[in-house]
């Protein structure tokens, strides 16, 4: 299999995947290094394929179903799990986290977190890799894009975050 055939196979794999596929898994499947896969993904993106890198692997983003809104939040790093659970417990998916960096401008991290299992996996990965959340760059201030099944679910998310003191609101 040459490089072009491998990239086509990766594209098909992502199109048929029911969840994220890690670079390590793709590397094993194609008997190449993880770095070769990262390069293949970069070339597929450059060719116009919309591939998102999430903490659990690569996905082809599905159009967000329902209501998509942005929330402004602020909390300490050790409260991240509580914040994410407050959103997914209302039936919403946390699509991303966004911070405003003084040099680079807007930085966005794809999350695609839909349930407590996803939250737990994300938090464990942060701890294992000793990775600080993006919000630490901005004294805890950050945005989340959420996809909610209804206005009622979104209102419940806002209420939950407000009760926790995490929602930035106009005073």
From TrEMBL:
Residues 6-58 form the Helix-turn-helix type domain. InterPro entries: 3H_dom_sf, 3H_domain, HTH_11, NadR, WH-like_DNA-bd_sf, WH_DNA-bd_sf. Transmembrane segments: none annotated. Ni(2+) binds at residues 75, 83, 142, 144. The keyword Metal-binding applies. The keyword Phosphoprotein does not apply. SUPFAM superfamilies: Putative transcriptional regulator TM1602, C-terminal domain, Winged helix' DNA-binding domain. One of its GO terms (molecular function) is metal ion binding. Residues 72-167 form the 3H domain. PANTHER family: TRANSCRIPTION REPRESSOR NIAR-RELATED (PTHR40068:SF1). This is Transcription repressor NadR. Keywords: Metal-binding, Nickel. It holds the Pfam family 3H.
